[in-house]
Amino acid sequence: MKHILTSCFAGVLAVGLTAMGAETVDTTKLPSASAKQVDFVKDIQPLFEKSCFGCHGAKPRAKAKYFMNNREKTLAGGSSKEKAVIAGKGDQSPLLHFSADLVEEMEMPPLDKRDNYPKLTKDQLALVRAWIDQGAKWPEGVELKAAP
Ligand code: HEC
Fold first, then answer.
1. Ligand 1: residues within 6 Å at CB?
2. What burial letters (b/e) apply to 117-146, b meaning 16+ CB within 10 Å?
3. What pLDDT, in 10s, does the model give residues 3-36?
């Protein structure tokens, strides 16, 4: 009996959790992807510029050496050497996990900085998830700009 219970529990864990280095992320807590066809410039760029870019690209030095200036850098990630965005797979993308507060100590924006850098709302996270699921499209030549 004990054996059966253990394997059931392991099965449930395997469904709900995605391994991410030493961390485990409960991806069931992610907002579902928006059904909308996402337009990067209209839907996503303003969010990144307001909530992320101040620490990740607006200045010559970026936190965790993570620059979000363009698509290539945003996908690549920073000092962790882990891809931040896996195009086509929102639920597996650390950028989304961090922005949805699923990884302790890696909440983005950091919890104590949210007066200046607002946390993304559930609807905004649903858009970011859809944007990644739809291939993380980012028009050629578009660079993030510092928020006013
Ligand atoms: C106030 C500054 C600040 C803001 C705003 C901010 N971050 Fe961060 N970010 C950090 C710091 C500091 C770290 C390093 C945390 C650590 O490793 O302990 C980090 C690390 C990261 C990493 C990991 C990079 C790597 O490879 O190591 C990602 C991805 C990330 N942030 C995404 C975001 C996103 C997306 C937003 C906006 C929703 C955002 N951050 C907003 C400060 C910020």
1. 51-52, 54-56, 63-64, 66, 77-80, 82, 84, 94-95, 98-99, 108-110, 113, 117, 120
2. bebbeeebbbbbbbbbbbebebeeeeebee
3. 655 555 555 554 445 444 446 899 999 999 999 9
